[in-house]
Amino acid sequence: MTAPADHDSYIAAAPEAFRPALGHLRDLVRSALPEAEEMTAYNMPGFAVGGSVVASYAAFSKQMGLYVLAPAIAAHADEIAAAGLRATKTGVTFSPRKPIPDDLVVRLAQTSREHATA
User: What are residue 110's phi and psi, to 5 degrees?
Assistant: First the structure.
């Protein structure tokens, strides 16, 4: 994918099978962070609060990822594992067939925001 101009462009350029899940993820994060500004950085759409990127997402060839600040991943590590998902220091990867539970997306985004604004 080429560098996206905005969230809509990124989702439109993603593989067709991922578009509904990406749109849903965007809506979840947007509702969890109503004060956040949509932006793009590192070729990914994201959300910034007070100038700090607190959440972003991406699509790859076989999976998608939600990226938040490391303390948010650490705070919800047990929930991520219980959902059968894989996490790195700053992200959770998943497939459109087995997405991150909606409530966990919201908690990850809000926890990330709390650490960014602390």
Answer: -70, -40
Q: DSSP assignment, residue 61?
A: S
For tokens 């990914």, the residue is 44
CA-CA distances (angstroms) from residue 55 to 2, 6, 46, 68, 106? Answer: 20, 15, 6, 5, 11
Model confidence band, residue 111 (pLDDT cutoffs 50, 70, 90): very high
For residue range 15-52, list pLDDT tens digits in order: 999 999 999 999 999 999 999 999 999 899 999 999 99
pTM: 0.94
| Structural domain boundaries enclosing 88 | 7-117
Which CATH number goes with the domain that contains 79? 3.90.1150.200
Q: Number of folded domains in the chain? A: 1
